[in-house]
Amino acid sequence: MGTVTIKQRGVSISGFLTVVAVLVFLAISGMKLIPAYIQDKTIRSKFYEVAHDPDLQNSPANVIRSAFSKRVTVTDITALKTEDIEVTKDASGIILSASYTVKIPIFGNASLLLEFNPSSANP
């Protein structure tokens, strides 16, 4: 009788561990990034609320910034200071905008730097 050779199929332990390490790194990075994007979404929605508030349409910039500050006191907005908010007025009404960065440490001395530019013109 002849010998039958069987080819092994599958992933080696080193290949499996490499895939697991990459997936763990991506999962940890994703969990660290999500709060920054949630915070940006909150800022955008509050900008929109303040810009479309009929009581604030003829208010000065400092009153508008104060209204924004009051609306975000419950949320944990740490990336943006009220003095960094730009308030402009045009024919369509008030436009609030800002530009800020968020530095997210990944591990050791490696960090991600995210730049956000929220505006009430595009919620």
Describe this structure as you would to a colleague.
The radius of gyration is 24 Å and the shape is elongated. Helices cover 41% and strands 20% of the residues. Strand 3 and strand 4 (110-116) form a beta hairpin. It has a domain at 34-116. The chain is an alpha+beta fold and 123 residues long. The protein has 2 helices and 4 strands; from the N terminus they run ααββββ. The model has no long low-confidence stretch (mean pLDDT 88).
What descriptive keywords fit this protein?
2 helices, two-stranded antiparallel ribbon, 123 residues, alpha+beta, elongated
In DSSP terms (H or I, runs of 4 or more residues), the helix count works out at 2
- Helical content class: 40-55%
The count of DSSP E runs of length 2 or more, i.e. the number of strands, is 4
User: Average pLDDT value?
Assistant: 88
- Separation of the first and last Cα atoms: 75 Å
The unreliable regions are: none
Strand order in space, largest sheet: 1-2
Order of helices and strands: HHEEEE
Cα-atom radius of gyration: 24 Å
- Tell me the strand percentage band: 15-25%
- Characterize the main sheet: 2 strands, antiparallel
Secondary-structure class: alpha+beta
General shape: elongated
